[in-house]
Structure to design on (409 residues):
């Protein structure tokens, strides 16, 4: 009897231990479950925060990109925030499945010049927007280097061609002194963006002391030019005619802010400042028309922006400095540039929508500098273009930016 009672109690003890073990397992499972739930919650929160951070970064980047695009068309723009809704709490939108939603907004601080060609753009991103009480925010600071076009990279650059090359090109470097003697070179290149093999035509009186360069895609087998009239100075005719790896950048120009309005430059009237002497400065005018015995004399470095036709004849414009001291830019409405007469013109002319015609005669009618337009034509015996290699240092229009530093905060 006592043995049976002992066995019963032993079995009851075993069942109790099993119950305790089961309870402990249940508690452990519950604890693990709660830990997993907590971990999942933290992961979800971290993932959400990461997604928000990426979204804010993208919104700020949209602000930076917008500022760079604006600077590309208006280099003197500085952003005035409140006065410019495009850069003050400006919305960034996206369309998904036909529904347009606002992802957030950005604000751009005034642009900061950092010396040289560097600028700083600071953009602030907000979600849902800058005025919300519970907004999320992020700031991005970008320092970038300005990329410039090179308006005078060749002696004669015709975007659509140099259809009549019946004169001579060569080169010199004004930084080494006047043209002549040892300061005469073979970098008077003729260049076009056109891939038409007939877009450049060197006539019987023409001579290119430099290279002839066609636009990308040109089949040189179809080019019919007398290589005896092309000489780049290296003694190898095989590389006298080339195909450019990419098209040149010839953006249109606009009148920069702060440029002085000038009455039409014409020696036939009395509207030239100081009676025919043009002081150093940056000017704009409707047209240039110099003819007869007229002459305009520069009193320093002059930059001219011209809206309409450019005609330089007579005794021309007297520039006693290097060609860079007289830079003439034709606006998109400038369609024709005529250079002729007895004077020697020392200038760099850039008119990307204009047909430029150089007519010279005798020993005069020469141009020292560079010509760049839609087309460039040389006509007449004695027409000579002496390319100034120093013009390669002249900066044109800002055509982009290259990021140097990127900081987030």
């Amino acid at each position: 009897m006592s043995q049976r009672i002992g066995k019963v109690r032993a079995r009851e003890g075993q069942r109790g231990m099993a119950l305790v073990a089961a309870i402990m397992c249940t508690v452990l499972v519950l604890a693990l479950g709660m830990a997993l739930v907590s971990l999942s919650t933290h992961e979800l929160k971290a993932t959400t925060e990461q997604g928000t951070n990426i979204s804010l970064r993208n919104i700020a980047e949209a602000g930076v990109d917008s500022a760079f695009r604006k600077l590309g068309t208006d280099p003197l723009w500085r952003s005035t925030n409140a006065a410019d809704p495009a850069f003050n709490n400006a919305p960034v939108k996206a369309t998904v499945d036909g529904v347009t939603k606002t992802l957030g907004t950005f604000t751009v601080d005034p642009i900061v010049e950092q010396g040289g060609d560097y600028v700083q753009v600071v953009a602030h991103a907000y979600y849902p927007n800058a005025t919300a009480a519970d907004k999320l925010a992020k700031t991005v600071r970008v320092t970038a280097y300005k990329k410039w076009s090179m308006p005078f990279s060749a002696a004669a650059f015709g975007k659509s061609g140099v259809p009549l090359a019946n004169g001579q090109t060569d080169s010199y470097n004004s930084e080494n002194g006047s043209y002549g003697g040892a300061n005469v070179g073979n970098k008077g290149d003729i260049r076009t963006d056109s891939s038409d093999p007939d877009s450049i035509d060197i006539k019987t009186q023409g001579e290119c002391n430099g290279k002839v360069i066609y636009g990308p895609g040109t089949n040189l087998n179809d080019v019919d030019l007398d290589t005896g009239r092309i000489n780049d100075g290296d003694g190898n005719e095989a590389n006298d005619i080339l195909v450019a790896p990419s098209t040149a950048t010839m953006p249109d120009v606009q009148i920069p802010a702060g440029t002085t309005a000038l009455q039409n430059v014409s020696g036939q009237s009395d509207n030239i400042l100081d009676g025919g002497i043009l002081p150093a400065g940056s000017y704009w005018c409707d047209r240039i028309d110099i003819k007869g015995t007229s002459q305009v004399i520069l009193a320093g470095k002059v930059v001219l922006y011209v809206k309409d036709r450019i005609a330089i004849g007579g005794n021309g414009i007297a520039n006693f400095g290097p060609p860079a001291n007289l830079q003439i830019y034709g606006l998109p409405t400038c369609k024709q540039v005529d250079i002729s007469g007895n004077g020697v013109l020392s200038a760099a002319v850039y008119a990307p929508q204009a047909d430029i015609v150089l007519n010279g005669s005798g020993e005069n009618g020469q141009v020292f500098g560079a010509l760049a337009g839609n087309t460039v034509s040389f006509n007449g015996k004695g027409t000579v273009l002496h390319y100034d290699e120093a013009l390669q240092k002249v900066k044109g229009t800002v055509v982009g930016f290259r990021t140097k530093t990127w900081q987030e905060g």
Q: What stands out?
A: The first strand starts at residue 90 and ends at 96. The first helix runs from residue 2 to 73.
